[in-house]
Known about the structure:
Blueprint: H1 2-18, E1 24-29, E2 32-50, E3 64-81, E4 86-97, E5 102-113, E6 118-123, E7 170-177, E8 180-190, E9 199-200, E10 203-208, E11 210-222, E12 225-234, E13 240-244, E14 247-250, E15 255-264, E16 268-279, E17 282-293, E18 296-307, E19 318-331, E20 340-355, E21 367-378
Antiparallel strand pairs: 1-2, 2-3, 2-21, 3-4, 4-5, 5-6, 6-7, 7-8, 8-11, 9-10, 10-13, 11-12, 12-15, 13-14, 15-16, 16-17, 17-18, 18-19, 19-20, 20-21
Amino acid sequence: MKNTFKLSLAAVLVSSAMAANAGISIVDNETGSFSIGGDVEFDFNYENFDRPNQDQRPNAQDDYNFSQSGRILLEFAGERLTSTGHVFQVNVQPLMESSGAVNLDDAWFAFGAQDGWNIRMGRFEAFDMFPVGQDTFLEYSGDTSNDLVSSDAPYVYQMKEGRGRGADGQIMYSQNFDNLYLELATMIGDRSVLFADNKYHDAAITSSKDSLLVRPVIGYQAGNFGIAASMEANLIKDAVVVQGVDGDVDISDRKGYGITTNYTTADWNLIANFAYMDAVDENNMSLGLNALYKGFGLGYVWAENEYENKKIGGYLDGKVGVDTVYASYEFADVLQVEDFSIYVGAYYTKVNDKTSDQSAVDVYEDKDTGVRLRFKYFF
């Protein structure tokens, strides 16, 4: 096997110099494979931000944004098959951004039985419990991150707090039983990074220690219809603590639940999602619907945060809603190249403040609109 990979590296240099094609298979035989691939993705973006009382708000954004963003992703994937029916896999995905930053998407090692159980460790994403379809451009008024809790914005919860790609590592077991799929993903390490500015409900984090997040998933596929259910929770007590009304409050005591369903045909892909988070002094609920038909995608995400002033105090009391609509269209096989597409995408999102007039924090009813032109090429 060592000789195989030495030959593979030499073949990489030769293949790269000779031609540019969609994916390079260096080794592909009965004992395994090694390949290099990736994709190029560049966007031209325009966003308009409707911000009431713009001049009176700290860290206020401009009323519009026009930018170009993008990245080049490389994927190195290896797989070895044994005569005993086992498999060993490795995957690395360096990410070079147009901003000049260099990051990493996936970096993992896995082993298991062919078409059976599998154990994966490293950096990766587990099962997607809130897929949003062809989300060429999808942002949310308020919190514009899918996995970051911010004290000055509502939270669009999407069952992603324990999904993966954390800085401190993870391990996951998965197995298929015909149409049934089981997965148990875990994340370890410091999860105080979940809370923006080291605050929760405007209360500063006073102490933190390593967490252990568990995220079991069970899925079933019957013909064109599929369904999956999951939950995620931290098992370590007092992993992230703030000062509350009556002393220390463990804000890492968070439990999330989710269900996703899909129906797929030759022309249609329909997805419905539900997610619910039970957290300290707040509950977050999200519903998502999206459809894809012959290159045209349309989606809607509704989210509602219900806040209470009990354990921490001095924050919101009542409900805040977020409504988001997004759409996109794919022009496939541009220049008659199968792996080259151009996407046009847009979104509209707004915040609805239903909190009590006595709330200590103001919620701004922001309205955002965005349009994007994306160029994407798989190689």
